[in-house]
Design a protein that fits this description.
Layout lengths: L2 H8 L11 E7 L5 E8 L5 H13 L9 E5 L2 H5 L2 H11 L5 H14 L6 E16 L5 E30 L4 E10 L4 E5 L1 E3 L2 E3 L2 E6 L7 H8 L7 H16 L5 H21 L7 E2 H10 L4 H15 L4 E2 L1 H4 L5 E4 L4 E4 L8 E5 L2 E5 L6 E3 L2 E3 L5
Antiparallel strand pairs: 1-2, 1-4, 3-10, 4-5, 5-6, 5-7, 7-10, 8-9, 11-12, 13-14, 15-16, 17-18
Helix pairs in contact: 4-5, 5-6, 7-10, 9-10
Protein name: DUF4317 domain-containing protein
Organism: Dysosmobacter segnis
Pfam families: DUF4317 (PF14199)
Length: about 375
C-alpha cells in the first residue's frame, strides 16, 4: 500500500463515512485471561463513544510507511492452503459475526502477545467500502464505483490504571475521589486484506506498530506465520554495521557527513514530489555514494557483500530508516554535539598535538547556559 491508499482508508473512520455496524473485542488482563467481551452496535452507541472506538481503530493506520506501517506478505502456498490465511479470510467473509472464529483469533493474539504486566483491549471491526472511480483528472467520482473493498481492521490497546483524582459529580454537586482504567492508544494492529491499487490484495496485510524498534514479531509469527521486514531501528543498525565493518579506517567523519547529506537530500526531494510510493535506496545506489566519495572498489565490494548478508540479495532500503534526517549528532564519551542537518559541514575532526578533536567554527555569538561569553584572546 502507498501513502494515498492508506490516507483514503483513514478517511473512512468517521461516523458519516464508514459502514461499520458493530464493534467486537475482548478485555484481557495481565494473566492472559479474558475478563469481558465487547459486542456493540454502532447504531445505538452514544456518538462520543462510537467516535472513540473509530479513533482507536484509525490509529492502526497511522504513522510512516516502512516504519510504523509494515507490509506483511503471504506466500502463494499460504494463500492456497494455510491455517493462518484461512482464519483471516474467515474473519472477513463472516463479517466478524461468527463468535467461534473471533474466539480462535483472540486466542492467537493472547497466547503470543507480550505486553508485560499490562492489561489490554483487542478491538475488531468489519467495513465495506464502495471504492469511488477516478476520472481523467485523478479526482474521485463519489457517484461511480467499480468495486467494493471488504476488510477487517484490528488494534490492541493497553488499558492503564488512572491515577486517583478529584472529580465532579453533578448529582451531588460535590467533588469526590475517582479512579478507574482508561484505554490508551493502540500498541499494534493490522488491516486485512491490503488495499493495493485501490482493490483487495489477499496476498498482503498491513501491520501497525506504535514503536518502530519493537514490531512484535511474536504476534506476526502467530497471526501471519511469516517473517516481517526488519524494523526501522534494525535497518539503521545493520546499515551502520555494514559501513563500519567493510570500510574500516575509511569510515571517517567526512564520509559519514556526505552519506547523511546525500540521503537527506533524497528524503527532502521525495517529500517535495508528493510521490505516494515509499522512497527506496538500492545497495547499488549506496555503493555509488561511496564511489563518489573516493572509497576504494575493494571496500565497496566488501560493503555490498555485507549488505547482502544483512538484508538479503536485491534488498531495497528506505533512506528515512537509515538516518535521522532532522538532526546531525556527534557523540564522544563525555560530550554530545548536535547541529541542524543543513549545517553538518560545520563539524570537523582534527588531530592536534597527537589528540583527536572535534572543531566547530564560533564566528557568531556564544552562549553557555544562557550566558553570553567571549573566547579567550578575542
Amino acid at each position: 500500500m502507498n501513502l494515498k491508499e492508506v490516507s483514503e482508508l483513514r478517511r473512512r473512520f468517521r461516523m458519516d463515512r464508514n459502514a461499520i455496524s458493530r464493534i467486537y473485542g475482548c478485555f484481557v488482563n495481565s494473566s492472559r485471561e479474558i475478563v469481558s467481551y465487547i459486542d456493540e452496535s454502532m447504531g445505538i452507541l452514544p456518538q462520543d463513544e462510537a467516535e472513540k472506538y473509530l479513533n482507536l481503530l484509525k490509529k492502526a493506520l497511522s504513522g510512516k510507511l516502512g516504519k510504523n506501517l509494515i507490509d506483511i506478505i503471504f506466500s502463494t502456498e499460504q494463500v492456497a492452503d494455510s491455517d493462518e490465511h484461512r482464519l483471516l479470510m474467515a474473519l472477513r467473509d463472516s463479517e466478524l459475526k461468527d463468535g467461534e472464529i473471533r474466539e480462535e483469533f483472540y486466542q492467537k493474539i493472547i497466547n503470543s502477545l507480550d505486553l508485560g504486566d499490562s492489561n489490554y483491549l483487542i478491538l475488531l471491526a468489519y467495513d465495506t467500502y464502495d471504492v469511488p472511480r477516478k476520472n481523467k483528472n485523478d479526482e474521485m467520482d463519489a457517484d461511480a464505483s467499480d468495486a467494493v473493498f471488504s476488510y477487517v481492521v484490528c488494534c490492541v490497546c493497553p488499558v492503564k490504571e488512572r491515577k486517583v483524582e478529584l472529580g465532579f459529580f453533578p448529582g451531588d454537586n460535590e467533588f469526590h475521589s475517582c479512579a478507574g482504567q482508561i484505554v490508551a492508544a493502540p500498541e499494534l494492529g493490522f488491516l486485512f486484506p491490503a488495499f493495493d491499487d485501490r482493490a483487495a490484495n489477499i496476498y498482503n496485510a498491513l501491520f501497525y506498530s506504535r514503536k518502530t524498534d519493537e514490531i512484535h514479531q511474536e504476534v506476526i509469527d502467530s497471526v501471519f506465520h511469516t517473517t516481517a521486514p526488519m524494523s526501522a531501528a534494525e535497518q539503521k543498525e545493520a546499515f551502520q554495521n555494514a559501513l563500519s565493518e567493510a570500510l574500516g579506517d575509511a569510515c571517517n567523519m567526512e564520509l559519514v557527513q556526505s552519506i547523511h547529506d546525500r540521503l537527506r537530500d533524497q528524503i527532502e526531494q521525495h517529500k517535495e514530489s508528493h510521490d505516494p510510493e515509499p522512497l527506496e535506496l538500492s545497495v547499488s545506489d549506496a555503493a555509488a555514494i561511496l564511489r563518489d566519495n573516493g572509497v576504494e572498489e575493494e571496500k565497496i565490494l566488501a560493503f555490498r557483500d555485507s549488505c547482502a548478508t544483512q538484508f538479503g540479495d536485491g534488498a531495497t532500503l528506505n533512506p528515512a530508516n537509515l538516518i535521522d534526517s532532522s538532526r546531525f549528532e556527534v557523540k564522544t564519551a563525555d560530550a554530545t554535539i548536535s547541529v541542524g542537518p543543513e549545517h553538518s559541514y560545520l563539524v570537523e575532526t582534527r588531530i592536534i598535538d597527537g589528540r583527536k578533536y572535534l572543531l566547530i567554527p564560533a564566528d557568531e555569538d556564544i552562549e553557555v547556559n544562557g550566558f553570553g561569553v567571549r573566547v579567550k584572546g578575542e
